[in-house]
Specification:
globular, binds fe (ii) ion, 7 helices, 7-stranded mixed beta sheet, 6-stranded mixed beta sheet, single chain, Purple Acid Phosphatase, chain A, domain 2, alpha/beta, about 290 residues
């Protein structure tokens, strides 16, 4: 009989949005972001789902939630207010909350400079900043990795060498089984997605080596690509990469209307179930595939 240590849910890319009507607030990159919201995001990211989907998360029996960023679309106060209300809703359902920003949460230089995300999410942020080592309620170590910077013309992420070194030091302090969470994937191509070079994480390979080399059993959870994928690292077979699709998103080609993943951490390892909405919640047990396109 396997011993269950932790059960947690991974939520990615909620993308709360609101179309900005004041032209003075559109004098930058936000102009384009706002256009995307107006044309596409409002049909795909159905915010009315948030409340009932939160109930579905709570109904899994998980005790913790890990959110890997992109709470907002263009980093406006209105979007952050909705996002914080959502996260408070998770906490009100007795879930412990762990989170980090995505690139859409530092969408403009101004939002980044004024630390707008930090201001809204203060009660949920690690005191020491990122990277941060914390733990799930049952004691499983959880390493939160920073990977976002504002960009003028791309959606590229960045983790600095110094931050990778800090993350490696924190990893050393952990036992043999660790959950690592970041906004960006470290794999650029899997069975589930192929990421455009303008949307990738800079220094991803360095981070991949830093995580894989110590030989620990790692579940790396991320979002950003808005696609589900679970693969075992070809170079470091003890590392599994899980990217969860966007929480509220209607994905016409796949006939889905949102998803999240539930993970059990047991003596035997990580046990992943994808919860996906197809005319109702369906639970799909996940077997990690062998990596492609390495
Ligand atoms: Fe996203
Ligand atoms: Fe993103």
């Amino acid at each position: 009989m396997e011993t269950l240590h932790d059960t947690f849910v991974h939520i990615a890319d909620i993308h709360f949005w609101r179309v900005v009507l004041n032209p003075l607030r559109l004098l930058n990159k936000r102009f384009w972001g706002n256009l995307t919201v107006a044309l596409r995001r409002r049909r795909e990211f159905v915010l009315e789902r948030a409340e009932s989907y939160t109930d579905a998360v709570a109904a899994t029996g998980a005790r913790a939630v890990v959110l890997t960023g992109d709470f907002a679309s263009t980093s406006t106060d209105d979007e952050f207010r909705m996002a914080v209300r959502f996260v408070e809703g998770l906490r009100a359902r007795d879930l412990s909350v762990h989170l980090m920003p995505g690139n859409h949460d530092v969408y403009t230089y101004r939002a980044y400079r004024t630390r707008r995300f930090d201001h809204f999410f203060k009660p949920f942020l690690p005191e020491q900043g990122y990277p941060a080592l914390t733990a799930l309620p049952g004691g499983t170590p959880l390493l939160l990795i920073p990977s976002v910077v504002p960009r003028h013309f791309s959606a590229r992420g960045l983790i600095a060498r110094k931050q990778i070194d800090e993350a490696a030091e924190l990893l050393e302090q952990c036992g043999d089984r660790v959950v690592v969470a970041a906004h960006y994937p470290v794999l650029h191509e899997t069975h589930g997605y192929h990421s455009n070079p303008f949307r990738r994480l800079e220094n991803a390979e360095v981070l991949r080596d830093a995580l894989g080399r110590p030989g620990k059993e790692i579940l790396y959870v991320c979002g950003h690509v808005h696609r589900f994928s679970c693969e075992r690292d070809e170079r470091y077979p003890k590392v599994q990469h899980l990217s969860t699709g966007a929480f509220l998103r209607t994905f016409h080609e796949q006939g889905t209307e949102g998803e999240f993943c539930r993970i059990n951490v047991t003596d035997a390892g990580f046990d992943i179930v994808r919860h996906v909405y197809r005319n109702g919640w369906i639970e799909e047990p996940v077997t990690p595939r062998n990596q492609t396109g390495a």
